[in-house]
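User: Can you recover a sequence for this backbone? Please restate the input before giving your answer.

Assistant: Of course. Working from this structure:
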């Protein structure tokens, strides 16, 4: 018990919470009445309401997944699908209500914006409360706004791409998402425009027994370049919270997108997120992902290499502690010749945590001369924890190169002995090994986020190894 209390104290930079004060909170459950009310409150066009209602119908027809972590504790009748904060979206930080502003101040968002971000959005519960973008990007035709504003201001562009990367019938929780989605970011980078600084969206869930269903839609046009950063956190409650967001990425010919995520949900969160990219000729998407929070995660970003010479790389790490089941991985479909993918996944488990790498590699018959390399390593810090690798490899042509390597093990006693012989304590030696194991991910993150990831690792290790 003392160890659990210690971990909760150590997480106080993320576990602080505001009173559950809101302008409106939908009653628990999911019904046509609730879906129509959300759409009405957002003053949406009929085509968006039609998508929501079709998604609701699909949700009611689909079953829970029969594989992976047990989701039986999720009771949608106890989950509010829409929580509206007591503010509208602001474009000046000083105009955000002090209680909400203080939350993001503690998380370092305004300071990060001043130092190295080209634009930032901040979502609190179900709505974006702050959004800004540098003036010079607006002059270049870059669009970066919240999804609700995009539906109103760029309806033709949104309608062309919305649900086209991740269809609403893909699984039960994406149908749920499309029925009640709220908040999120819309980005359009015109042809040939290269952003030197990242854009960032941060999602904070404060209200207990609620869900967050933000939608992120990014279009990087021909020859353009973008780095997009996503951060997530929530305080800890005794009841289940739900996150079922969706990310749709469209990378056009010769374009490049790096999508970086640090997910630090609280240990009562069910994180059932869906992310997918469609990459055209000579385009590339790099995924960098760190999963540290949530009670259960089911998260498998996906790249579809649609055009010739399209490329993707995935670098990810998950850290599962006591009472955590993090089922994560990556999916890639090679659908054109000369495509390539590289997957580098690391997982750490401690105190009985479960870390699973679940993956799909599909190389279609037409994807000749394609190359795929997969490496997934699991590190267990004690004999109570569990680490599994569950790959599915479907190579449908002999004219392709494919390799898969997987390793699972405990910290090397020889390595610990060597570091202790050089003057380190046993705990410091183990912590150094863990941080080194995680370094392939941290070195791919922007400096501030690498620092945050290492801080999260330190918090998880505190009092937990020895």
């Amino acid at each position: 018990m003392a160890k659990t209390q210690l971990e909760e104290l150590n997480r106080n930079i993320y576990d602080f919470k505001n009173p559950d004060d809101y302008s409106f909170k939908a009653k628990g459950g999911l019904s046509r009445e609730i879906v129509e009310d959300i759409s009405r409150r957002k003053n949406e066009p009929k085509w968006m309401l039609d998508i929501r209602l079709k998604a609701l119908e699909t949700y009611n027809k689909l079953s829970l997944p029969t594989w992976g972590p047990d989701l039986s504790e999720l009771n949608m009748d106890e989950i509010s699908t829409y929580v509206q904060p007591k503010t509208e979206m602001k474009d000046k930080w000083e105009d955000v209500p002090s209680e909400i502003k203080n939350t993001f101040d503690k998380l370092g968002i305004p300071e990060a914006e001043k130092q190295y971000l080209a634009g930032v959005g901040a979502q609190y519960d179900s709505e974006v409360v702050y959004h800004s973008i540098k003036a010079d990007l607006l002059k270049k035709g870059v669009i970066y706004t919240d999804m609700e504003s995009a539906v109103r201001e760029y309806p033709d562009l949104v309608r062309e791409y919305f649900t086209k990367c991740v269809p609403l019938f893909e699984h039960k929780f994406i149908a749920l998402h499309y029925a009640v989605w709220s908040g999120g970011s819309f980005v359009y980078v015109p042809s040939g425009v290269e952003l030197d600084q990242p854009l960032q969206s941060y999602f904070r869930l404060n209200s207990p027994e609620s869900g967050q269903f933000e939608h992120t839609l990014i279009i990087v046009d021909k020859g353009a370049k973008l780095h997009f950063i996503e951060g997530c956190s929530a305080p800890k409650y005794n009841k289940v919270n739900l996150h079922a967001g969706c990310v749709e990425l469209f990378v056009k010919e010769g374009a490049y997108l790096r999508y970086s995520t640090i997910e630090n949900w609280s240990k009562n969160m069910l994180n059932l997120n869906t992310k997918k990219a469609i990459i055209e000729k000579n385009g590339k998407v790099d995924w960098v992902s760190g999963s540290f929070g949530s009670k259960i995660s089911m998260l498998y970003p996906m790249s579809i290499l649609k055009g010739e010479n399209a490329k993707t790389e995935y670098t990810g790490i998950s850290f599962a502690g006591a009472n955590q089941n993090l089922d994560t991985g990556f999916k890639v479909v090679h659908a054109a010749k000369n495509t390539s993918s590289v997957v580098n996944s690391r997982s750490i488990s401690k105190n009985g945590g479960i870390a699973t790498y679940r993956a799909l590699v599909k190389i279609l018959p037409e994807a000749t001369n394609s190359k795929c390399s997969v490496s997934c390593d699991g590190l267990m810090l004690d004999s109570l924890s569990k680490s599994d690798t569950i790959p599915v490899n479907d190579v449908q042509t002999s004219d392709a190169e494919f390799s898969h390597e997987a390793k699972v093990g405990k910290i090397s006693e020889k390595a610990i002995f060597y570091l202790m012989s050089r003057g380190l304590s046993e705990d410091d030696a183990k912590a150094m090994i863990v941080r080194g194991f995680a370094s392939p991910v941290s070195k791919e993150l922007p400096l501030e986020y690498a620092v945050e990831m290492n801080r999260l690792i330190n918090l998880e290790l505190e009092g937990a190894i020895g």
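That completes the design. The CA atoms of residues 246 and 393 lie 25 Å apart.
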